[in-house]
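User: Continuing from earlier, I have the next pair ready.

Assistant: Great, send them over.

User: Here they are, in order.

Assistant: Folding the first of the pair now:
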Amino acid sequence: MSTYEDRLKALRAQLVLDRLDGFVVPLTDEHMSEYVGAYAQRLAWLTGFQGSAGSAVVLPEQAAIFTDGRYTLQVREQVDGEHWAYESVPQTSIADWLGIHAPQGGRIGYDPWLHTSAWVKAASAALAKKGATLVAVDTNPIDAVWPDRPAPSAARLVVHEDRFAGRSAADKRQAIADWLVETGADAAVLSALDSIAWAFNIRGKDVDRTPVALAYAIIHADATADLYVAPEKMDDAVAQHLGNAVRVSDGVNFAAALQDFAGKTVVADPERAVAAIFDALEQGGATVLPLRDPAVLPKAIKNDVEIAGHKAAQARDGAALSRFLHWVSVEAPKGGLTEMSAADRLEAFRKDTGLLEDLSFDTISGAGPNGAVVHYRVEDKTNRPIETGTLYLVDSGGQYRDGTTDVTRTLAIGTPTREMQERFTLVLKGHVALARAVFPAGTRGGQLDVLARQYLWAQGLDYAHGTGHGVGSFLSVHEGPQRIATFGGGDEPLQAGMILSNEPGYYKTGAYGIRIENLVLVEERAVPGAEKPMLGFATLTFAPIDRALIATDMLSAEEQTWIDSYHAQVLDVVGPQLEGDALAWLKAACAPLTAG
């Protein structure tokens, strides 16, 4: 299994043994997670693709890998085009592709613990046109040919204290129970790892960069709950925290427990619960209500304690990032900096806070053309020097007990070209437009997306990713249901207390990438004469925006005022945490634009 070609051949041989004519390989786990543990990295093992979103299909003579616009360049660098066809989503779906390429009358396998029921229905319908069938497997064939597949993490659960959560786990579960009574349901299945972490005020270390634990839960209408987790992950402190109202069982018992609801009504989330959960409930005689996981929305609407914690985390993180930006300004002109050494130094600055639990995702440290790879991840073979005359894009974040951060800055190394300045400023104008937006309650994120793109569009430019994603509270750096995007979501009404990113960008293939990202908090706004409740954004991230890249002649007076005001806030929040040369650098970096 030393090459990806060998692995593809081995999978095809296994499919013959399993009497299958194809198999679908998603990048997810049994919890429909975006970021997954090493044991579930089947797509990466099979293809070499290192992105965080994608799927593949393997047929006897063909294989295709499906990724979205964030990975157009990356997938071609990491996956061998001799053996894999590159397909773009949402333009092409796996179901549509199978409807064209699956063999007549073929049997296409899928793991029901890795797909939603909606996907199964769509794929089955597409295959039916070819007289082919979708076949649920009992054992994933990749697991049969992956000789050194890692075991799931055995890390212990950790209590997330109320002083960080702002609300007790008992209170959260009681609210879910009250909702179940109102809905006429007896229980709700929670399978999304961040929902379980939120509802029980627990955290874990089972997924890199995301502090969650592998578990399942069922919350009942009487406010009791069943938590299914490997026994070795429990300790006395967690057991005491959970209390008598939570029954703890071995995770291997979860599937069987789903068949114990005959005659009862159970809520399961069609987007977050896999097909196997729906199948087991229905086979056991339960009536399944396909409703959204009741933890999703309250988790997204942060309480006052979480908001205060996030602001503290952002102030701490902004100081660490500002120290890094100063360090780059000193070291880059000397030469010798690389993407890897810069990313390592940035992590060290965050560790110096003494409160960093983990990064919130692998740092995107992209110099020159690597910055144009939207979700680039540096490795030995791609590591580029950070050279004078180029742009350097760094997208990074930290996991702290009191908050999760995510911030992107683009730096000019040396003197930027006028084109770099103009395109940076188009992105900045979009960022400012979104940051300044005031909108009526009920507005969806998708309705705001154009604000960030308008100036790029006017010049025939765009970017192939959403403008904003939700962010958790010491949880997932990508958290739903809120998004600012015209595709792949964005239909959720924004509500006060939600945290999102504001991150427009521009990417010139083979040359450079630009992205400016701050996190923002949705808050109520008083608008004189308003006839309905209004909302706006409060910026939470504080770090300088590179003044060398700003073409001030392209800014309106209002935009320049916003930037100067933002930099004044950066100085107020971050300045007291710096000293010496770093503080002097920050003062210059935050000077009003009219100061030259």
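And the other member of the pair:
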Amino acid sequence: MPHNAIPAHVLLVDDQPANLLALEAALDSLGVNLVRAVSGTQALAALEKQDFAAVLLDVRMPGMDGFEVAREIRSRARSRFTPILFVTAGDDPDEAMLSAYALGAVDFLSKPLRSEVLQAKVGVFVELYRSKEELRVRERRDFEQRLEAKEERYRALFESIDEGFCVVKLLRGPDGEVYDLRYEEANEAFSMHTGLENPVGKTMRELVPGYEGTRFPVYDRVARTGEATRFVQEDRTMQRWFDIYASRLGAPGGDLVAVLFSDITQRLLAEQDLRRLNEELAQANRRKTEFLATLAHELRNPLAPLSNGLHLMRMASTKPELLEKTRQMMERQIQHMVHLVDDLLDVARISTGKVELRRSRIDLRDVVATAVETSASLVEAGGHQLTVDVPDEPLPMDADPTRIAQVVSNLLNNAAKYTPQAGRIALQVRVEGNEAVLSVSDTGIGLAPDALDKVFEMFAQVPGAGKPQGGLGIGLSLVQSLVALHGGSVSASSRGPGQGSTFAVRLPLLSPDSEVTTLMSQPASSTQPDQLHVLVVDDNTDAAESLGVLLDIEGHAAHIAHTGAEALQLAQTQPLDVVFLDIGLPDMTGYDVAKRMRLLPSMQKTLLVALTGWGTEDDRQRTRDAGFDRHLTKPAELPAVEELLRAAAQAKRDG
């Protein structure tokens, strides 16, 4: 703004209108706003409303003279430094002048006034006033610019932080208690962390109806004490967790609180998941340790009777009855070990999704009868009373009979194990809609409510259950997995510890007119096979020799090799009809041996049988790719071996 454009005001105070008119005429050329006052009271009122570059004050006025008015002007903050020029027509100007200067006057003018002198003196104070105003305007403009720059930096910082930030005004009731808060400011991240849009000017209860007010006491304490605080709190109404830092803004009593916060719901959920996973891993590790200890115990148990049996067979070679009894005992122990190993293999197959179901159209009644027969020895050993209730009408199913029999047998075995001596076990089958419901109930140790789901977990040990009949604790887990593979379900129920348990299996039934494609095995030939030249290749000397003895007893010519090199040497010098080949040999794999054998002209029609502890479909495919004809899992059962020998003999006869 130009210097001359700055408005300036001069106050003219005189009780005589003629004198005021003369003053106005003398000062008109200064370009200022001349304000009249005909009394001291009127002059003081004008000074309260605005600032003046100078005051021309008549000394002699009725009521309040010029000196009294000057004294009042100097006593007020707004006009304390306003220049006062006294105008007088008195007889003793020297005495009046001294009084005027004592009151802070800047000049004393005597009438009659010379207009050019008056104009020059007032003009000095007008210029001084305009200079001061110009400086004040410039300083104000600079201050506003600095303030605007700071505001821009503050706003940029305010919006750049990724945490939510807001300034809230606490709203108090008549009792002084905080009942709500109003958002005065909020950054863009506020909505991201809270999900609340356009919060400024709105209250918390407007934005979140039904808000519980859990943070109000904390903000109240911060506003009252001025002590900042940080806390983590769940907002149930908003279904979020927040990490909050709150501090007071301004002086006490202003009730303004600055809040910096972030939504940590996902972080807390992740931490909860991590803790849960750690707990599950720790629990799984405990189960693994318990399982390995149980497995070692269960596998060690048959070793003592087997070792004792070997001693008895050496000592009682002349006592046929004792030999037969010992043989039966050893067969039972071996079958027990085979059963344990089969369970472990089933667990591995099911866990990797490689279990194979050999489905066919079956009658559930026949499978139940087979399972009851399988479990009869364990039920009888416990002195239990078993009742079986099965419908008379057929129960057709599309299922693997061996696996369903395993399900029923495992449930019966479980009931027998966990029922005290001379208990009662009931097996019932009924039809509900298109499902068969098979239940096994007992009067055993029962289950606590929190153990009903745990009994189906792999390797889990239900507290207080114990293991009175041994086992690996995987039978019920196998039941659940095998039933699920058949499209069914299994559940457990119990009235509590000591009150028995019931396990119910639901399996889908076939309609009577449905057709199922079945895989039927060809009946084995009943004719006695011709002698075969059979090579057994296994680095386990006992396994190879025992199979060789069985082959000799069957009337075949058995040859034994313990390495791949020995097997290849025998294959080049001896015509062979059948080769039982172990996959894990010390010098080369059975796959490599099979591939080299297939390169020999004499081995093109030889039946190659893989012997291995692995029986998944991938393992079988690998043996087929290596040139094997058949795949047997260890320990190979005698009926399977005999079937292979009959097939080889038949092929040899057919040429």
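Worth noting for the second one:
The longest helix spans residues 115-160. The chain has five domains: 3-136, 161-263, 275-350, 356-508, 533-654.
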